[in-house]
Amino acid sequence: MDFQVVVLAGGTSNKLLPLVSKEVPKPLLPVANRPVLSYVLELLELSNLKKIIVVVEGEEEALHVGGWISGAYVDRLNVEVAAVPEDVGTAGAIRAIAHHLTAEDILVVSGDLVSDVPPGAIAAAHRRHDAVVTAMLCPAPVSGSSESGSSGGKDKTKKVGRHDLIGLDPTTQFLLYIATGAELEKDVRIQKSILRAVGQMEIRTDLMDAHLYAFKRSVLLEVLDQKPTFRSLKQDVLPYLVRSQLRSEVLFNGAPQTEENGSEKVISQSNEQMLSQILSNATHPTFHQRYAMGPYCSASGGRTHKCCVYIAESSKYCARLNSIQAYSDINRDVIGEASHLSGYSFSAHNNIIHPSAELGAKTTVGPHCMLGEGSQMSDKCSVKRSVIGRHCRIGANVKIVNSIVMNHVTVGDGCSIQGSVICSNVQLQERVVLKDCQVGAGFVVTAGSEYKGEVLAKK
């Protein structure tokens, strides 16, 4: 497919401190001992989408990412790494590289997406509908409570996080409404003129926007040019395209674009069930029925455009590494229930122990665990549902549960690590107890210390 692919990889996201740094920016954060960006790049490669621009925030961060890509994907992918200023937002990042975009259609993918949904399927749906944008939607993930790191897989009280409010036509092909983020803290108001325009709309609360979009390049760049204040593709550009699609619908139906008070239908977020709004305005065919008849023009003489969706099957895996909780969950999933994503072969004990790793006497590494290259564990250690990186030195009588330990970490005798993330080159002295903590790179935790729910990092 002659799609250009833009991977928005981010940089040193504040949400992921102290895990990220200029040396280890977000795209290089290890998930099952592989940079998270590798999951997106290999997914694109499987769909034969090999012409890729990876956008990284920050010059130094881009150099680190570019260095890794040139080593890992030489002769496999045609990847250009572009540095953009920090904190420009996803829309600003596209603006900054607009001169690189030449294809008719652009696939924009978040670099923190870990999924097995083929991007080629979204690209194909986009072409089939001749849409201006096609957004991939996934079933909203079930996330653990804030203390899920320590409570172990089975005991977690899981609940569906509130993600997006999405309006779809009855065929679930067209995106008619989207509200995200802070908008969902209050009741959501939808203009009756919009509801009249679409004929039928189903409001869904069980789907999330996966940050994978196919755009018609000319339309995307025109919007970014005309709306210089737009910062976010999800919160600014996508809703704008959806609204402008519906404005042409409203004109087509002869309804005014604005109405007096009382023109809004209120949907309360307190109703957790999926909501359906079927209108009795049967004098006009519904939105999808008119599109089934072929393209048409609105009353203002302008051609309407289509905003479409691709809904991933519930059996597919789809998660974004956009918080520390998500980082822990995805690591656990990739060596657990979504192990097919890891790219590794699992042992008969359902774990991954590198052939060069060394285990002491009476040391056990349980199922859904990973022990990296060159790491050494002394006697009487126990590892459960955890990832341990490369070249770690772990003393005797150490317990590691539901945790991620990155590369070159030293753990003294008698330590207990539960529900925590330990970054590279950390030193834990003897008898340290950590529960639900994050320890930044190079930090030294002194002997006998106990911490719960703390962030430990160099100033």
From TrEMBL:
Question: Gene3D superfamilies from the entry?
Answer: Hexapeptide repeat proteins, Spore Coat Polysaccharide Biosynthesis Protein SpsA, Chain A
A single GO CC term, please?
cytosol
Domain named Nucleotidyl transferase: residues: 5-147
Task: State any GO BP term from the record.
Answer: cytoplasmic translational initiation
Q: Mind telling me which InterPro entries this protein's record contains?
A: eIF2B_gamma, LbH_EIF2B3/5, NTP_transferase_dom, Nucleotide-diphossugar_trans
Q: What's the chief localization of this chain?
A: cytoplasm
A molecular function GO annotation: translation initiation factor activity
Q: So which residues are the signal peptide here?
A: none
Q: Which residues form the EIF2B subunit epsilon/gamma LbH domain?
A: 354-447
User: Where, subcellularly, is it found?
Assistant: Cytoplasm, Cytosol
Q: Does the keyword Cytoplasm apply?
A: yes
UniProt entry keywords in alphabetical sequence: Cytoplasm, Initiation factor, Protein biosynthesis
Quaternary organization: Component of the translation initiation factor 2B (eIF2B) complex which is a heterodecamer of two sets of five different subunits: alpha, beta, gamma, delta and epsilon. Subunits alpha, beta and delta comprise a regulatory subcomplex and subunits epsilon and gamma comprise a catalytic subcomplex. Within the complex, the hexameric regulatory complex resides at the center, with the two heterodimeric catalytic subcomplexes bound on opposite sides.
What does it do? Answer: Acts as a component of the translation initiation factor 2B (eIF2B) complex, which catalyzes the exchange of GDP for GTP on the eukaryotic initiation factor 2 (eIF2) complex gamma subunit. Its guanine nucleotide exchange factor activity is repressed when bound to eIF2 complex phosphorylated on the alpha subunit, thereby limiting the amount of methionyl-initiator methionine tRNA available to the ribosome and consequently global translation is repressed.
Q: Which family does it belong to?
A: Belongs to the eIF-2B gamma/epsilon subunits family.
What is this protein called in UniProt? Translation initiation factor eIF2B subunit gamma
